Amino acid sequence: MIEVKNLVKKYGTHLAVDHLDFQLEPGRIYGFLGPNGAGKSTTMNIMTGYLGATEGEVVIDGHDILKEPEEAKKHIGYLPELPPLYMDMTVQEYLEFAAELKEIPRKERENAVGQVMEITKLKDVEYRLIRNLSKGYRQRVGLAQAILGFPDIIILDEPTVGLDPKQIIEIRELIRDMAKEHTVILSSHILAEVREVCDYIMIISRGKLVASDTPDNLEHLMAGQNSLEIETKAEPEEVRRILRGITGIEKLELKRTAEHTTYAKIEMGTAASEGEQDIRESIFLAFAEAGCPLLMLKTSKASLEEVFMELTQGEEAAADAGDL
Ligand code: ADP
Ligand code: MG
Fold this sequence. Notes:
Elements: E1 2-11, E2 14-24, E3 29-33, H1 40-47, E4 55-60, E5 63-64, H2 69-73, E6 76-79, H3 91-101, H4 106-119, H5 135-147, E7 153-157, H6 165-178, E8 183-188, H7 191-197, E9 200-205, E10 208-213, H8 215-220, E11 227-232, H9 236-243, E12 249-258, E13 261-268, H10 270-274, H11 279-289, E14 294-300, H12 304-311, H13 315-323
Parallel strand pairs: 3-8, 3-9, 6-7, 7-8
Antiparallel strand pairs: 1-2, 1-4, 4-5, 9-10, 11-13, 11-14, 12-13
Helix pairs in contact: 3-4, 4-5
């Protein structure tokens, strides 16, 4: 288990991590989601013991990363934003070297290196110099180094940046595979990516945790913006009249889609969506009573994309300005 308590990081006067508090349970895939400059890399660098915090604590399986870095680091594999690869080493030499640094006993090293090369599909470039590898292969070398020795916790900073779509799919599969036995934390500024691979998403904006939940629950978080779509055999004016009998409608958009057929988008207020009666029943009955058949009725949840936009609005502009 990982506990992050009241974590603060200041670069000069710039507050990059602003009182972060969270706990991570074993065996899940967590996603740090946030635009560039949100503080994801800084947080990961502190969690892995590569950077000191201004305030707060990080406790990894009971070990304080600042007070017992050696012990805590044994539980972590880390792929930093810029993996420290040695260009003049071959893949095999580099991973042997990484195994030595991780204090994997000499007689187990060859085996351990072979195993991670197998998993990350590096066998065919084993004897190539890292300088001659493509970006995708270099990323795999970084990943192989992170999972070497199979630490309980694997932390990956933007693991798919710079990869082509095929490589991205492979790395995602690899991450899902690893999560069967490890806790994985990855960062990304791409919403689709965290939604696809993570069980749990933490949205970071300007160094603050602004939301943390499962992808499904984050979508429900926007319950106040529940909306419905219907299509009915009626004229727009009739639809408007029928819907007047329903309480809680905040916004209504009508569009005639064919002769005597209307499409309506109905946005409900928060109170209405929290009420006990399913709004779809009321709508169905109201149209039935008026003798207008419903051709279509569906609820549309606010997408996580919208949650993200809402929660991190203006972030990028502010972060960019901060960089100057
Ligand atoms: P992310 O990984 O989410 O893109 P970072 O953690 O890299 O964000 O950066 C968070 C903020 O801290 C940014 O505004 C960035 O410019 C600033 N920052 C990061 N590293 C340093 C540094 N070494 N010195 C000064 N400011 C930094
Ligand atoms: Mg970063």
